[in-house]
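Task 17 of the worksheet. Students: predict the tertiary structure of the chain below and write it out as C-alpha cells. Keep your answer in the requested format; marks are given for formatting as well as content.
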Amino acid sequence: MILTTIIVSFYMILVYVVGSGDMMWKLALVMITLIGTIYQVQRGRKKGKDYAESLVDNDVRELKNLVEETISNAAEFVSSKIESEE
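Model answer:
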C-alpha cells in the first residue's frame, strides 16, 4: 500500500508539475526514483530481508543510534579539548 501511494504521488508530480516541461525532467525524476528504489532494496537484501520487506525497511532505530553516537563522540571531543586547555 505504501508503494502504491508513492507510485501515484510520483505520477501526479510528473503529470502536473513537470508535465508541460521537457522530457528530460521526467527522465531525471524517474532515474532518481529508480536509484533510490535500487538502493533501498540492496540495503534490505544485505539485512537478509526479501524483496517486499526491503522496500518498506525502516531505519529509524539505526539513524537514532548513529545520531546518539555522533553526539556522544562530539561531547567527549569537546570536553577533552576543554580539559586540555585548562
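Marker's comment: Helices lie at 2-17, 23-46, 51-55, 60-85. The first helix runs from residue 2 to 17.
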